[in-house]
Amino acid sequence: MNTEAFFKISYGLYIISTEFKGKKNGYVANTAFQVTAEPPQIAISCNKDNFTSHLIEQSGHFSISVLEEQASAELIGLFGYKSGKDVNKFLNTPYISGKSGVPVVTQECIAWFECKLITQYDVGSHIVFIGEIIDNGLLNESKLPLTYLYYRNVKKGKAPKNAPTYIKPEQADAEMVQEKDRSMQKYQCLVCDHIYDPLEGDPDSGIPPGTPFEDLPDDWMCPVCGAAKEDFEPYN
Ligand code: FE
Fold first, then answer.
1. Cα 109 from Cα 105, distance rounded (Å)
2. Residue 9 gets which letter from DSSP?
3. Could you give the dihedral angle defined by the CA atoms of residues 73, 15, 22 and 131, in that order, rounded to the nearest 10 degrees?
4. Any idea what the Cα angle at residue 200 is, between residues 196 and 201, rounded to 5°?
5. In the structure, what pLDDT confidence band is assigned to residue 154 with cuts at 50, 70 and 90?
6. Ligand 1 center–CA 133 separation, angstroms
7. 213: helix, coil or strand?
8. What does the DSSP assignment read for 119-171?
9. pLDDT for residue 173 is more than 60
10. CA of 113 to the centre of ligand 1 (A)
11. C-alpha 46 to ligand 1 mean position (Å)
12. Comparing 139 with 164, which gets the higher pLDDT?
């Protein structure tokens, strides 16, 4: 199987949310796509291990918020790399309530859809949910949607382990560069697998190329998921 071929398929990035009996939850998905125009229906593919999957099956409704290109690592980290079993993702996240009562994330999003679950297919590790759009709206017409390509190339993000497009690290990069100089040691985020490379630094956070991991400020955060510096370990 040529894993590189999978990266030639383009996607956007979305926050899928729902609520059942007062429990709100959501996760970051790259698989949301319109399947019919009349009636307007959208399909999503959700890992069975995702808490949100169980909630959608029970609530019968879900929402899709389209992330903007400059969505923050904090928001993607919260919804993409943390489990709703451990944290209340909606505690400090702005949202509106849809007609069915499901939450719709509005923070750093440019459009949204509210869907009524019509049917679902068990496809092994994931469930494909098909929903009919019962309401939708625009939040910001001046901003661009975040694409999976931009997330991977510019934000250096990787698919979390529950994503349909997840590829095991050992499968993915054959670019194992042996660094002799310890100060050029790469570090990997234990939450999202992002690799900090001292040769590249983290220019978006004002960290110039050539900055050893040890010299990063204590409050530096993973640019992909917002995890703390302590959540990194040496990467070989
Ligand atoms: Fe991370």
1. 7
2. S
3. -170
4. 65
5. confident
6. 33
7. helix
8. EEEE-SSEEEEEEEEEEEEES-TTSPBPBHHHHHHTS-----TTSTT---HHH
9. no
10. 28
11. 21
12. 139
What separation in Å is there between the alpha carbon of 233 and the centre of ligand 1?
A: 11
Dump pLDDT digits (tens) for 22-41: 999 999 999 999 999 999 99
Centre of ligand 1 to C-alpha 220, Å, is: 11
Between the CA of 162 and the centroid of ligand 1 the distance, in Å, is 15
User: Is 80 exceeded by the pLDDT of residue 101?
Assistant: yes
Query: Letter for the amino acid at 221?
Result: M
The pair of three-digit structure tokens given for residue 139, joined into one six-digit string: 């939040």
How many angstroms does the Cα of residue 135 sit away from the middle of ligand 1?
34
Q: How far is the CA of 222 from the centre of ligand 1 (A)?
A: 5
Enter the pTM of the model: 0.81
Q: Which of the four pLDDT bands, split at 50, 70 and 90, describes residue 152?
A: confident
